[in-house]
Amino acid sequence: MTNPSRRDAFKILLAGASLPALPAAAASSTDCPAGGQAWRRGIEGQRQADQGDGTYLNPIIAGDHPDPTVLKDGKDYYLTYSSFYSYPGLVIWHSTDLVNWRPVAPALKKPLGTIWAVDLCKHDGRYFIYIPAAPDGKPWSIYAIWADRIEGPWSDPVDLKIADCIDPGHVVGEDGKRYLFVNGIRKIRLSDDGLATDGKLEKAYEPWRYPADWVVENFAPEGPKLLRRGKWFYLVTAVGGTAGPVTGHMVIAARSASVHGPWEHCPHNPLVRSLSTAEPWWSRGHATLIEGPAGDWWMIYHGYENGYRTLGRQTLLEPMEWTADGWFRALGGDLSRPLPMPRDGKKGTAGFALSDDFRRDRFGVQWSFHDPAPDEMTRVRFTQDGLRIAGRGTSPADSRPLTCSVGDRTYEVEVDLTLEGEAEAGLLLFYSQKAFVGIGFTPDTVKTFQYADEHGWARVQRATSRVRVRLTNDDHVVTLRYSHDGGKTWTLHGTRMEVSGIHHNVFGGFLSLKVGIYSAGKGAVTLGDFRYRALPA
């Protein structure tokens, strides 16, 4: 076939036709994990979506980046995602081709409790993020922050007092007024400045229902995202539950000539859905439609990776097409194969190095405290020796550890810990206070944490003032080592830990298993020379 159309190219790929051969240098940097997928390797061996041959392989942002909301701003694209208990949070990511993404800065620094699916939009030259949150045990409400530049500074949160709602989606109606749609699917009018409500919450749409015998978690209509194109408003919604059975979460759509309805169901519903556990991506849903650099169209949504729910919900990109009757269809299939890159995008650098000498502030972009108190950052001081964190609590469970999200299936991290006073510190894989594993050090004892408990029987008496710790996560099997001579010799920890079950379907919370460093007790720990490298599968 010569000069196939773009749609034909997608069909060729999905039918299993051969892809162009990778150059020798690129081929040497690929990896073939279970399931037949292959990723090109980038910074520190991290897997990257852009395969370097005109194709990409999902995820476009690996690791825990759920509920993506994406904004097209001229030739630039900006994305943020649910940050839950991590602060600073709501990191803004930037791309010029929809595949290669880099973080810019966190937009939210004031703790609001757990942050669920937000909406990023631009109106009259100003950027807004609408945030569902439940601060300090208060009921859920929708908050707003705004900025005149995407890089910030962003305002403090403004409570819109929209009670017991989540998943806001912003749209400007045919009347020129601003509206938020929320879970349900309901809507409420906003003031012209977008920082207060101007009406009552009301029912907007009764979503399409799947057949009763489909295996889903629950109905849960949520994540409304809206687009105006031509004479139609399009409403894209998630139903089926965001976790639970892998066949539950899905993408559906409706359209109306008015933001006030009536809405008609898309005849192609569901547009995206995982059909079996054999697929590489599970629980796919919560989509935003976005126009590509060349005027073609795409969906960005999230999904769990087959066998790696521990990584959280990752950000996925799927091509779509508009049909002659004004509807649209997804073209990516189960996303098991590379797909053609969006055309005419300006290629950028993807991701960033996680290794850190702690000489500069990477809070939010890389490091975040888990569920911090309002004064959490007072524990932090950058010194000539590294990052000093004062102790809090008595163990990893109540110390509000520092965490770092990772996106690889197998990896290794190392860090120097220097204890001060009666401090206790250690290296973890941390999901929540209910689920973590790792190793800790006091001035005289080495501790072992497994199943979110310390195993007293495993204590080792060992004087420690400075220690280098290594954690290897090899396909869910964790191996720990430590060195008291700067890495010249290593002690192998006597317990290996299997962590494949530490994820939302077991522990709740919609979180992921992150690298964690805790500082507890009366004293402080100084962190130095953090190193990260992804390992071949």
UniProtKB/TrEMBL annotation:
Keyword Hydrolase assigned: yes
Entry keyword set: Glycosidase, Hydrolase, Signal
Domain Beta-xylosidase C-terminal Concanavalin A-like: from-to ranges: 355-524
Active site, UniProt feature: D67 (proton acceptor), E222 (proton donor)
Signal peptide (residue range): 1-26
Statement: the UniProt record of this protein carries the keyword Signal: yes
Residues at the site labelled Important for catalytic activity, responsible for pKa modulation of the active site Glu and correct orientation of both the proton donor and substrate: D167
One term of GO molecular function: hydrolase activity, hydrolyzing O-glycosyl compounds
A GO BP entry: carbohydrate metabolic process
A Pfam family recorded for this sequence: GH43_C2
Record-stated family: Belongs to the glycosyl hydrolase 43 family.
Protein name per Swiss-Prot or TrEMBL: Family 43 glycosylhydrolase
